[in-house]
Amino acid sequence: MQLSSELSVLNALSPLDGRYAGRCQDLRAYLSEAAFMAHRVEVEVAWLLALSQAGLSEVAAFSPEAQARLQALVTNFSEADAARIKAIERTTNHDVKAVEYWLKEQVEDDPELSKAAEFIHFACTSEDINNTSHALMLGRARANVLVPVLEGLLERLRQLALAHAEQPMLSRTHGQPASPTTLGKEFANFAYRLADCIKDIQAVTPLAKLNGATGNYSAHLSAYPELDWEAFSAGVLNQLGLKQNTHTIQIEPHDWMARLFDAIARANTVLLDLNKDMWAYISLGYFKQKLKEGEVGSSTMPHKVNPIDFENSEGNLGLANAVLRHLSEKLPISRWQRDLSDSTVLRNLGVALGYCMVSYDACARGLDKLEVSAEVIDADLDACWEILAEPIQTVMRRYGHAQPYEQLKALTRGRAITEQMLKEFVQGLGLPEAERDRLLAMTPRSYLGLSVKLAKKL
User: Fold this and answer.
1) Could you give the residue numbers annotated as active site?
2) Which residues partner with 289 through β-bridges?
3) Domain 127-212+247-372, CATH 1.20.200.10 — does that match?
4) Which of 100, 172, 194, 229 has its C-alpha lying 20 to 30 A from 249's C-alpha?
5) What is the CATH number of domain 384-457?
6) Which residue from 325, 359, 333, 331 is spatially nearest to 347, judged by alpha carbons?
7) CA gap 342, 130 in Å, rounded
8) How do beta strands 243-244 and 176-182 pair?
9) pLDDT (tens digit, 9 = 90+) per residue, 225-268?
10) CB neighbours of 170 closer than 8 A, spacing ≥ 6?
């Protein structure tokens, strides 16, 4: 076999850059290598601009033109710029130093900015730039990609809950017939859980630090002991929309990242549960799947329409959570004040969220294909009169009947129960007339509790 050395969707090692590239492309603007470089440039520029406004005699305040030129380096950052930084890195063998040298290249023809060139990356350790960049990257990916996609899934579930709020359905606990619900109520359950997860994801506050090699502003104070570096650092971070972590080692400890990844993993677990239930309901015939011209379900069995979207989502959610949980467990741990094992792991942020995007897309497509088979759902429920043993024995308890549970157990357990058998049992209980008639009028389809109300309440 001979394959091109140029990366393509056909020779990519990861399906995220190959088969599924289109499903996670929106993340590239935030979590790709080029995006990481762009965010580093943004942080370095913000730091330099703040230094120029700090009243330091060695760094005069920049003119509006100089400020605009620096901001243009952020706004107009391109893949060509990223490629140049990568070329510099081949010499430096240090990615952040390559960004610093690139910035110096960009201002070397400007007398005003070149004079301040050595204040690019002033007193910073690489991790100051990286951790701040990661906070921006994850915050923006969350706000602009992750949460909107999850909210799209949530809206689909809400619509399904309302559309099918009144469709009675047999429940199954331990795989056995149980008290009925409605189809809409079951969708509402997932919607309620997912909404809660989205709130948790949004509630995590990104933290960052710009405090030097071991978190003590030592280099900063050695040059300018009179400056309040804690406040200065917090101000730069606040301008970037971030909150300062005041107590760190060389690295920001990533506890906030762990909270975020755990919250995303919980959302994924809810969707994993949804996928498994949808798969099972399709297997029972409760749903048909909309057909698409030209699609094949099986290479040998022409009749098959497989629930491939829910299966695809399930598999990729597993991969997403495996990476998210490793990130959550690994990143908050560092040997003493710094080791580099977190650095290589952090390069997989796009992998974790990429698998999320693939799975969310597949789940959404699966939900959009569903067509309710009301006749199958109704027939399944109509064949299970034994589920009315619960309300009958509960009413019997109210009116003081001896051993009501045991009586219904003897009548129904392991037996095929008909409507007539239950009605004869109720007739012989000697209940008050109104209670007797209410139980006699009850059917498996009407024994729904508050399920309709709860589905519509969503």
Assistant:
1) 174, 298
2) 370
3) yes
4) 100
5) 1.10.40.30
6) 331
7) 11
8) unpaired
9) 999 999 999 999 999 999 999 999 999 999 999 999 999 999 99
10) 177, 178, 180, 377, 380, 381, 384, 387, 444
